[in-house]
Amino acid sequence: MRRRFESQQGAALLTAMIIVTLVATLASAMVWRQYRAVQIEAAERARAQASWILQGSLDWARLILREDARADRDAQRRGEQAVDHLGEVWSVPLAEARLSTFLAADKNTADDGPEAFLSGSLQDAQSRYNLRHLLSGKVVPPLEQKVLERLVVSAGAAPGTAALIISKLRSAYAVKAESEGPSSSGDKAEIPLQPKNIAQLAWFGLSADTIERLSPLLTLLPIPTPVNLNTAPREVIAALFDGMDLASAERLVQARQSKPLSKLEDSADFFPKGVVVTAERASVNSAFFIVNGRLRLEERVLEERSLVQRRDLEIIVLDRQRVVPRLETKP
Predict the structure, then answer these.
(1) Dihedral sign, Cα of residue 77, residue 81, residue 86, residue 90
(2) CA-CA 20 to 30 A from 22: which of 4, 109, 153, 300?
(3) Are residues 124 and 64 in contact, defined by beta-carbon separation less than 8 angstroms?
(4) What is the C-alpha to C-alpha distance for residues 302 and 294, in angstroms, rounded to an integer?
(5) Which candidate, 193, 235, 237, 194, places its Cα nearest to that of 214?
């Protein structure tokens, strides 16, 4: 009888230990889930907060470009041609500014709020060669192909890069025209996606290093656009025309620092004889701009790049994407 009582006590003790273990396990699981929920909520709040702050860089760009458009309108009323150059206000970067005071819930205790710093810059998208010129006609215009080949060489990209870009780009943007006719599902599967910017040329198999080399020289805009000679780098100007050389392009770049081109015809003073400059290939003003916004919020750094189009006083956002910072590898 005594042994039976002791065995019952042992079973009861074991049952109690199992119950305590289950309760502790459930309690820890509930605490972990609550902790994860708090983390997710904090991350979502930070993401929404960062998105609103980065919207401020777009608002800043709209204000600057709208004021520049008003100045151009006044110039046209005076009988002058509107020009865009690197000496205007829009080309001055926005230095990193602290925004913690505006983010804090209580302005009297702003130092207790998160550390937030915003910076940004505006770049002329028409200072680069527009790959949209490669998509006109049933065949690639010979001049446009030579321009891209020159720029690939200037960037130090691998041989065959120009041919790869042309082939994949024309294949991607031929989808809409071919979709109306009969085509097999296998053919459609081989057609690459349509990129909207240079970074998405990685879909064609270009390496990150190649894209980084080509980014300052190339762009992909919704419509064909001329290159702005007041903002383009010398490599783009030299590659844009047959008979143009890098030295002549450098003279133009140096001269426009003190006196930007007021009309397209002024560029003839810097080009070699025989170089034909047309309004379809070159201009002295721009309608497309790239807005770069950078937010440093506590330990997080977020960057965003947007493509905007200026139509008179209206600023239209065409593309907006987060920029993933490239990790630097130590040698």
Answers:
(1) positive
(2) 4
(3) no
(4) 6
(5) 235
SS3 assignment, position 81: coil
**Whole-number Å distance between alpha carbons of 122 and 46:** 25
Q: Structure tokens of 97?
A: 């500014």
Model confidence, pTM: 0.79
Parallel, antiparallel, or unpaired: how do β-strands 116-124 and 288-297 relate?
antiparallel
Rg (alpha carbons) of the chain, rounded to whole number: 29
d(CA 212, CA 214): 6
Distance CA 307, CA 285 (A): 17
84 by Cβ neighbours in 10 Å (0-12 / 13-18 / 19+) ranks as buried
272 contact partners, CB below 8 Å, separation of at least 6: 243, 244, 245, 248
* Alpha carbon distance 63, 83 (integer Å): 18
Cα–Cα dist 71/59, whole Å: 19
Q: How far apart are CA 230 and CA 257, in angstroms?
A: 9
- Residues 203-214 as b/e (b if ≥16 CB within 10 A, e otherwise) read ebebeeebbebb
Residue 51 CA to residue 3 CA, distance in Å, equals: 71
Under 8 Å CB-to-CB from 278, ≥6 apart: which residues?
none
Residues whose CB is less than 8 angstroms from the CB of residue 5 and which lie 6 or more positions away in sequence, other chains included: none
pLDDT averaged per 10 residues, the chain (length 331) = 61 80 84 79 68 79 93 88 92 82 51 71 96 89 94 93 94 60 51 87 92 95 96 96 92 94 91 89 95 83 91 91 60 41
